[in-house]
Amino acid sequence: MNIILIAVLALGGIGLISAVILYFVASKFKVYEDPKIDEVEEILPSANCGGCGFPGCRAFAEATAKKAKDEKNLEGLFCPVGGNDVMQLVGETLGLEIEAKDPMIAVVRCNGSHANSPEKVKYEGVSSCSFAHALYAGEGGCQFGCLGLGDCVDACEFDAIHMSDERGLPEVNDKCTACGACVEACPRDIIELRKRGPKEKRIFVSCVNKEKGAVAIKNCSVACIGCGKCEKVCEFDAITITSFLSYIDFEKCKLCRKCVEVCPTNSIWEVNFKPRKPKVDKPKKEAAEAKPIDISKGKATVVNKTDDNNNSGDNRK
Amino acid sequence: MFTVSGSPHVHGEYSTPKIMYGVVIAMVPAILVSIWFFGIDAVRVLVLAVAASIFFEWVIQKYLMKETSTIADGSALVTGILLAFNVPSNLPSWMVIIGALVAIGMAKMSFGGLGKNVFNPALVARVFLLISFPVQMTSWPKPRAITEGLADVITGPTPLGIVKEGLSAGKTMSELTPEIPTYLQDMTGQMGGSMGEVSAIALILGGIYMLWKKIITWHIPVAVLGTTALFTGILWGFNPESYADPAFHLLTGGLMLGAIFMATDMVTSPMTHGGQLLFGVGVGILTVLIRVWGAYPEGVSFAILLMNAVVPLINRGFKPKRFGTNPGIEIKA
Amino acid sequence: MGLLKTFKLGGVHPAENKLSAQAPIEALPIPKKAFVPLGQNLGAPSKPLVKRGDEVKVGQLIATAGGFIGSNIHSPVSGKVFKIDVVLDSSGFRRPAVTINVEGDEWMENIDRSDEIIKEITATPEEIINKVKDAGLVGMGGATFPTQVKLTPPPGMTAEYLIINGVECEPYLTSDHRVMLERGEEMLIGAQILMKALKVTKGYVGIENNKPDAIEHLSKLANDYQGIEIVPLKVKYPQGGEKQLIKAVVNREVPSGKLPIEVGCVVQNVGTALAVYEAVQKNKPLIERVVTVTGKAVSKPSNFLVRIGTPIGELIEAAGGLPDDTGKVIGGGPMMGKSLLSTDAPVVKGTSGILLMKKAEAHRKPEQACIRCSKCTHVCPMGLEPYLLSRVSKLGKYDMAEQERIMDCIECGSCQYTCPAAIPLLDYLRLGKNKTGQLIRSRNKK
């Protein structure tokens, strides 16, 4: 009995003394950290993706807390993964009003699928778009078009972009947080971050070919030839043509759909719109290939119904 | 339609299956010797080890790793034969199969498959079996020519075992000499031991074939054998009655097998010649340490496994000679 | 004779296949349309002088150097400029080029077209360098580095030796071989001109031992040209790489990241030496070159003297036409050449040969797991570790790649050639070099 008592007392005593020492050392050497940082970090999605421009969520939390204290606003700081929901909560925690930003999504601006841009040569080599871009123009012959080797797919940390085997092009689904990783990864600057649009509706030119129209159309049947019809028909000054390529400014675009109708090569896409009443002038095959792809079907995850606040709901459960 | 790819557009004659099957051909002399001396048992162990290795690799790749099967490249075949070489011919069949599972499943596939393992799979299996089933793994059948008929097998210790026991019991080397086989018997295979290690001549023949086909280089075998000979030579020169002579050490136990087939395994040995020499020296030193002062009579397996663990460090330290380090004239800054 | 000289580190022995070695140089008929790209040299692309509708003569200056590292371009044909537009190059990219509709074959008056071999060199070193610059000469081995820049060592460095690269280590190619046999004397005079420009007294011509006729022929001629020594070399790829050539001939190693001039050597291709002779002694700018058309299925493997700007398809027609089972068209040799997308691309200053590969040989073996055999390390002529560099390039660790000297890689392809697991080592290495180079450039900018 004695020995047990001695053991208990001895170890207990050591434990107690250690605890007291630790307590004093911890309080003496404590580094003051704004408690708000921890609170903000709790709210953040902990993806540590770098989409905000900071190395990890903790760094973003520190930056917001500091900026809120020094400048009383959070301009320029935005977590694309958390989106407006999370930024609202961050603002509340820091005692600030945050303006809701339009949610963005990555858009692949190329429609040079196997059907539209048939292969003229066969590529053998590493599956790296950066490498293939330096090696040659592309299997379809267009030197601006998507190479289909998947650097964007590798870069995505949210499982939001996948290669479609039948088309040979990447497709973005609703998990996209617009962090920008795929935009960086693409060596041909084909992917762009654009506004998601009301009810996920958006219109964009699905081509980045800067060659003369005659040359572009030889390699891909749905290329933008820079004819200018879209520019003429747009009433909101949203379309500009530079270097035989049309570009729609998503801030100015009002989604009136007029440009889509006049494009002779079906190069402009309208996504998630109700189908029009069918006209009989365009050949059905091309139209079916180039017209809207509802990203909620097929391989992508099902999109939650959007509510009227333009929030697409939290899909990252 | 043309093909487009980066240069080079031609390829040399080497391929993984060629290398693996080259190793198999090099092992044929030792296989024949083992069948000659250990009879039908040897065939049983060989066939089981090979079949089990290939089967386990196929199953694991198809159902666990869900990737295309690579059993055609011959590496599972090589592992199977080496496993068979490392066990006594009277090992129960179920133990052989467990050995194959450990070699392929634990030592190779769990690291990621071919090329990614740190330790030599056949040796890991041998050590595993040795530690799990020490009795069955150390009852060595006495070799007799296949022509003597299929009588019951008698078991006995290996020459190394006899020497170890004898020396620790206080006998001297001269007293032990009549009890151990002669050098000629050691070389041709008339000594107790695992299936592949008995005949030094058969193994050396295989080694010469691999050198000719450029599957291995001389660095590791020479380093291992040379270091062992040197180290044991020093000891024996010091006191010939307490230590066996170098020729004995070279010809008995698994040293020849280890030096020629196990330590030279490409995946688990260093990449530069300098590193390979250091690796061989390490194996030699450790082998002698274990044989003379360790608890086991044979130390090659442990020595090689220990040096396998050091190989990544050796690769860090030993880099090839870079071009440009010897300008030939004085360079102005 | 003793042991042949060679470089010590690494090297492989691909099958030589010099199918066109006995075919004498044949002048190809002038094309109907010439497509002269404006980017034919390493460095800045050239700026066009002519415009649509201009009449041009052979040898007329049509574009000027785009920068210090740039070269002039002269019209290879006579006729009218059709347009200055983008034209498909060998990789499928569209690059600016001058398209000329050919009319006749009228040359500029100052060009000496006689066959007489002019041995006396009257120009001074400065004049030589200016003539070389004006003639738009670039390295004809394929690198297309502007020659006048090589002949002007940076301040503080002097040249000690000139080495002429007659090695032609790439399998299949024979254009340099034929030039040495048929225009050997002019080539040696060109070498002398280069030696005068560099102010050196010793010149070497390195030739691989699989060209004994060229070695014999030039050795005889070299007796009249003091200071020039013919050096036979052991047949080993990549002996023709300039660093390996310098090591073999004068036993000096160019340090990492530095140029050959730092060890006192200047290396020039045989074709460049011939072009120097023509430019300095005959006032002829670079407008044509010898191109080998070869391949196992080609009915008439040949060496053609071709005007720059000729579409490659015409060369293939002259060699017997495109074989039916052609799987790959390669511009250059099989070890370092580029695979072309189509035969519409034009011949440029750096086109040394066209190789047509059969379908059976045109495909890569499927990639397998690395078995760490270290063969790639043993064949690398620069002493690198391709298995490690390709691994870190794949993983994106470009700082480690830089540390392991990935920028020293000369992209010879020996590693990928040897790899038993058919791993595309050079693909990953190129990717790694590209990204590491970007990293270094962005770091130097700061």
Please, could you describe this protein's structure?
The complex is a heterotrimer of chains A (317), B (333) and C (446). Chain A has two domains: 35-94, 3-methyladenine DNA Glycosylase II, Chain A, domain 3, CATH 1.10.15; 104-290, no CATH class. In chain A, 33% of the residues lie in helices and 12% in strands. Chain A has eleven helices and nine strands. Chain A has helices at 2-28, 35-43, 57-71, 83-94, 129-135, 151-155, 181-185, 213-219, 229-233, 258-262, 284-290; strands at 104-108, 121-123, 161-164, 169-172, 191-195, 202-205, 239-242, 245-248, 268-271. In chain A, helix 2 (35-43) crosses helix 3 and helix 2 (35-43) packs antiparallel against helix 4. The model of chain A is unreliable at 284-292 and 296-317 (pLDDT under 50). The longest helix of chain B has 25 residues, at 40-64. Chain B is an all-alpha fold. Chain B has two domains: 16-137, no CATH class; 151-317, no CATH class. Chain B is built from 15 helices and three strands. Chain B is globular, with a radius of gyration of 21 Å. Chain C contains 13 helices and 17 strands. Chain C folds into three domains: 25-101 and 286-360, Ubiquitin-like (UB roll), CATH 3.10.20.600; 125-282, Rossmann fold (3-Layer(aba) Sandwich), CATH 3.40.50; 375-445, no CATH class. The N and C termini of chain C lie far apart (56 Å). At the B-C interface, strand 1 and helix 1 of B face helix 6, strand 15, strand 16, helix 9 and helix 12 of C.
